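Here is one record:
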Amino acid sequence: MSYEKKMKNLLGRLVAMSPEAPPYPEESPMAAKEPPRKRVHPALVFAGAAALVAALAVPVVLLTNDPPPAAVGSTTTTTTVGSTTTTQPSTTSTTSQSTTTTTSSTTTTGAPLGPSWRGTIYLFQTPENSFLGNPALVPIEVAVTDASSQLSGSDPFTVPLAAIGQDLPQGLENAVPGDVHVLSKGESSDTIVADMSEPFLEGAGGLLADVTMLNQIIYTLTQDDPGKEVQFTVNGRPVEAFGSEGMVLSGPVNRDSFLTESALIFLTEPIMEVENVYVVSGRSNTFEAMLMIRVIDRDGNTIHEEPVQATSGSGTWGEFGVGVDSDLVTPGETSIQLFEYSAEDGSMVNVITVPIFEEDVWSTTLG
C-alpha cells in the first residue's frame, strides 16, 4: 500500500470517528484554556497527503536512472505465455510452428530493498501509573541506512527486525528477539501466512513479553491491511506450543486477539504531519470513552492540552483520532502524551509519551 493510500485511509477513519468532544467534566483538572485547535477540511488534508507522498517519491527518481529494485514485502510474479505462429510456404504442404515467449511482470508497491529502507515498525512503552501494567504499542516511521549489507534478501520483515535491534528512541522498547525472522510470507484475501525461524517458538521470556512480541509482529505484518489475520508456522507447520506457557497458535490470530494484555491506550498508526496537522490515532478502553492529549516540551512542561472522545469505552474498546496543530509541535523538542484523568482521584493514569522526530521519522544505521 502506498503512503498516499495509507494516509487517505487513516484520515478517512479520523474524519469518521472525530465528533466534537463534549465539555469535559468540571471536577476533572484541566490545564489553562488554549486557543481552539485548527480544523482542516478533509479534502485539503487528502491533498496534503498526496503532495507529501509525491515529495517523498521525487528524490528516488532523481537519484538513479536504473529500473527500480524489487520491493520489501512485494510479490513479483513472472508469467510465461506461449504463443504459436503458423507458417505455410506456398511450395509445400508442410506446416512449421515457432513459439514466441512473452514475459509479463506484476509487482506490488513497497519500500525498496538495498542500502536504505523506510517503513513502519511497532515498538512498545510501559504506561506510567497503569493499574494493569500492560505495554502500549507505539508505531513509528523508521528510515534505515544499511552500512554492512545486512538487509540483502527478500524477507519482508528482515529490515524492521534489524532496525528495532539497534539503539531505540528514548522511552520505547522492543520485545522481539534479534534471531526471530519471517522466513517466508504468503497472503490470501484475508490471511497472512508467516513462516517463522525456529527461535520464534521460544517466545520473549514470560507470558506478557510473549504476547507483546506477538502484538508487535502482528501489527507490523498487517500495517497495510489491519483487518487481516496472521497464521504463524515454523517449518511450514502450525505452531502448537509457543513461548513460556506453550501457547497454541495453530489457528490465525489478529489485532484483537491479545487486547486483554494491551494497555488501555495505545497507538495504531505513527504520528505524522499532514497539511500542518499532526494526526494521532489509536485504540482505547477508558472511562466513558474519554482520554486526554497533551503536547509537552523536553522538561515536561505542558504546551497544550485538550480532551479526546473515543468511539467507545468503559469496558469496551473503541478508536480515537485527533489532529494537533503543527504550530504547537517542535520536532525533536516536543512529545505528545496520551492519558486519562483518574475518576477516583483526578491523577494522570495510563500515560504514554511519544517523541516527535524531526521529519516525522526516526533514522538509524546498521553496521
In short: The two ends are 29 Å apart (CA to CA). The longest strand covers residues 76-87.
